[in-house]
Amino acid sequence: MQQTSDITHYLITQFAGLVILAIVMIAFILIIQKAIGKLAQQIHSASSELNIMNTQISESQKVLVSVFTQNDKITSDISELNKKLTSIHQELSLLSSDYSDNQQVSQAIELARKGSSTKIIVEQTGLSSEDADAIVRFHGEN
To answer: Of 40, 88, 93, 108, which residue is 20 to 30 A from 134 by alpha carbon distance?
Structure first.
């Protein structure tokens, strides 16, 4: 009988140990499931934030492409304006030179009408002696 009660006691002890172990395992699994749920929620939240950031990065890249395109266009426009300004500057230089030449010729004609000699006209206007001589012949007092 003693043996039967020892075996029974042993089986009950072993059974109780297995039940306790099963309860602990179930509790452990529930705790892990809860932690996995929280981690899954955090991953989902982080994934949403990353998607938002990717969208913002994509929009920023589009803006940068637009800015670079506009910059290239502005650079091209500035280059064209510089060419036009250079052309205008050259034209102004020519006009200024022509005006200066005309002013010298006008001054030479006025001097010739007043009876100045070719030498005086050359000294005062800076014209060549040939030009001054022709002006004196055509516009002089003679």
So the answer is: 93
